């Protein structure tokens, strides 16, 4: 009976992923699935493979103690798939690019790109859809840059909260939006705008390699990325959340060293809820010896809320694995 219960979530993820990708396969004129571009009917093969992948991930991530490992490596796999296709596209194999036209693969371009160009991109639509459906899951399961930051921050986490985090976050976001507006208003050539964005990305990589590695937490994602700031501010449009059960929490602070997003500092634990930079990744759940850290979704039980979150997030992760290309 227990085994059958554990198979329910993987089956639902498998079916929902098939439904989402089948809609793309049937309704979009230009093939968006890579295998359909390689041979006729290949998209249906890819849909089956991706659906099975999502089911396997869902099965293992039901167990809190496995979440950190499976999330880390499936997220890294997502990043490898994304950048491999980008490299192949740059090498002249345009079939690996979504539109055949190259866009700079820097997360801030999801924010600044539509402002500069005057219209959204596929990545913009994927980003907004994720925020609406599963809150901040983009920042812990789908961002190709975030996977790199996660690997860099794999060491021992600093117990000292980030200083002036929100001042930095708002400053960067305002500068990115203002710069995009000015570049569009001044009709700055695409090449010049691209070089500006490239400089922003190089600074971000520097933060990942230097600060995230030193601090053992994701400084780029939590304090620098403007897309992350938008996710933090718009998480209220989604009813998913996490809380710390006041009746059982012992204030042991064990969860602090498992949070790579600077969302479980002493002040957050005292208020009995993670900070705004929490991405609901769930890494902290298995670290809580008293089982006090729980998911919340409207009036559902914590277990049901967690399962619903995993269902949506893993389905989106699997679907995006097939669609996220430049």
Order of helices and strands: HHHHHHHHHHHHEHEH
How would you state the average pLDDT, rounded? 88
Detail the poorly predicted runs. none
Any idea how many domains?
1
List keywords for this structure.
326 residues, mainly alpha, two-stranded antiparallel ribbon, 3% strand, globular
Describe the structure.
With 326 residues, the protein is mainly α. It has one domain (2-323). The protein is built from 14 helices and 2 strands, in the order H-H-H-H-H-H-H-H-H-H-H-H-E-H-E-H. It has helices spanning 2-27, 34-38, 42-61, 64-90, 108-117, 122-134, 138-142, 144-152, 165-185, 190-215, 219-224, 226-234, 266-270, 302-323; strands at residues 240-244, 293-297. The chain is globular. The model has no long low-confidence stretch (mean pLDDT 88).
Short description:
This protein has 14 helices and 2 strands. It is mainly alpha-helical and 326 residues long. Helix 1 (2-27) packs parallel to helix 14 and helix 3 (42-61) packs antiparallel against helix 14.
Q: How are the SSEs placed, and which strands pair?
A:
Elements: H1 2-27, H2 34-38, H3 42-61, H4 64-90, H5 108-117, H6 122-134, H7 138-142, H8 144-152, H9 165-185, H10 190-215, H11 219-224, H12 226-234, E1 240-244, H13 266-270, E2 293-297, H14 302-323
Antiparallel strand pairs: 1-2
């Amino acid at each position: 009976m227990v085994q059958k219960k554990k198979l329910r979530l993987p089956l639902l993820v498998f079916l929902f992923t098939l439904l989402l990708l089948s809609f793309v396969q049937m309704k979009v004129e230009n093939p968006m699935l890579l295998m359909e571009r390689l041979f006729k009917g290949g998209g249906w093969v890819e849909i089956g493979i991706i659906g099975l992948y999502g089911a396997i991930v869902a099965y293992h991530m039901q167990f809190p103690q496995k979440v950190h490992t499976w999330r880390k490596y499936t997220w890294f796999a997502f990043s490898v798939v994304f950048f491999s296709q980008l490299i192949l596209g740059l090498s002249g194999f345009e079939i690996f690019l979504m539109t055949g036209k190259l866009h700079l693969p820097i997360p801030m371009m999801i924010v600044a790109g539509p402002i500069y160009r005057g219209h959204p991109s596929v990545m913009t639509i994927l980003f907004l859809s994720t925020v609406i459906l599963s809150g901040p899951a983009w920042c812990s399961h789908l961002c190709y840059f975030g996977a790199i930051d996660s690997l860099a921050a794999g060491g021992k986490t600093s117990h000292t909260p980030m200083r002036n985090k929100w001042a930095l976050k708002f400053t960067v976001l305002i500068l990115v939006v203002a710069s995009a507006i000015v570049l569009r208003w001044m009709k700055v050539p695409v090449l010049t705008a691209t070089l500006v964005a490239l400089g922003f990305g190089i600074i971000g990589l520097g933060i990942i390699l230097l600060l995230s590695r030193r601090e053992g937490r994701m400084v780029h994602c939590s304090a620098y990325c403007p897309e992350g700031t938008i996710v933090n501010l718009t998480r209220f449009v989604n009813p998913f959340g996490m809380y710390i059960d006041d009746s059982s929490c012992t204030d042991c602070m064990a969860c602090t060293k498992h949070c790579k997003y600077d969302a479980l500092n002493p002040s957050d634990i005292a208020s009995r809820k993670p900070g705004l930079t929490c991405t609901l990744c769930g890494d902290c759940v298995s670290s809580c010896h008293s089982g006090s850290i729980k998911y919340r979704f409207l009036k559902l039980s914590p277990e049901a809320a967690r399962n619903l979150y995993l269902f949506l997030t893993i389905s989106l992760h699997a679907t995006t694995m097939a669609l996220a290309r430049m």
